[in-house]
Amino acid sequence: MAVKNGVSFPEFSTALKHAYVDVASRQIKAAGNLVTAEGIYVITSIEATEVDQMLRTEVQPHASDSDAQSLSPLPRVLNAWHTDSRYAGPYGVLRDLEFTRSAGSDGMAFSDLAAAYCPGVSPRALLNELLASGCVKDVGSGFYRAVSRSYVPDPLSDKSIQLFARVVHNLCEAAELNLRRESAGGKGLMQRNVYTQLGFTADDLKAFDRYIRARGQTFIDDIDNWLSPRDKAGDLNVINTGISLFHFIVNDEDEADLSKFFQTGMKE
Q1: Domain spans, the chain
Q2: Per DSSP, what are the bridge partners of residue 26?
């Protein structure tokens, strides 16, 4: 992926070193010890002089609570449109919203939704991006309709890269936790996989894609509806959690190389 998107090896190597230093620092702190360049060298084998330079120039990587609240306004406003009863009509059917309330209107408008869930963010900018992404459409007479519950940013945008990083990070964190000895016997996080043993045709793949999109979206909506009323500000000692669903297609060449490595490389 890095090569395909123009990331040079020196850039990738530098980012990887910073990741090693960051994780090693956390590990040392968790053990109650002082973080030093020499201690990180022992864990990572990155030269202490290089580690020392990284530690001196390190920019705080963690967002503050207020920064975290300002992240991802587009998914947040879409989720609120689907889950807040003030914006839903009978039987849970979403209301079409005006941008601002017209004279004599007692209904909620998109600007009200934006102000409630994304304070400080321009309602017009939010609406324009939702229209551009196809999540909302103009139905005429000054009204707008949410046609998708999920916001997916344009490929290679900053938001897409951030989304990719979060997905991979959460996946690896969950998999690593489940590999720990204390997670044996089903004590870790839920992890389930289902896949073909012998493979199927391209037509079957298209049918499978349609099937899982429909069933998967229904499942995700059910989970979202369960989470939404419990996910509120003001609670203490909160834990952020969730699930991810993704459809994968096995890269046979990579799979063969991996199998070959475990057959020969691990024995050397």
Answers
A1: 1-62, 67-146, 154-191, 194-268
A2: none
pLDDT above 90 coverage of the chain, percent: 38
Of the candidates 32, 65, 38, 70, which has an alpha carbon nearest to the alpha carbon of residue 51? 38
Strands annotated E in the chain: 97-98, 136-140, 143-146
Q: Which CATH class is domain 67-146?
A: mainly alpha
Question: What is the spatial distance between Cα 173 and Cα 54, in angstroms, rounded to a whole number?
Answer: 24
Residue type at position 59: V
Q: In whole angstroms, how far apart are CA 58 and each of 20, 28, 50?
A: 13, 17, 12
Percent of the chain with pLDDT over 70: 85
Backbone angles phi, psi at 143, to 5 degrees: -110, 150
How much is the pLDDT for 5?
Answer: 59
pLDDT digits (tens, 9 = 90+) for 185-202: 889 999 999 999 999 999
- Do 170 and 244 contact (CB within 8 A), yes or no? yes
Predicted TM-score of the model (pTM) = 0.56
All residues at 6 or more sequence positions from 259 whose CB lies less than 8 Å from its CB, including other chains? none
From CA 74, how far away is CA 149, in angstroms rounded?
10
Angle (CA) 239-245-246 rounded to 5° is 135
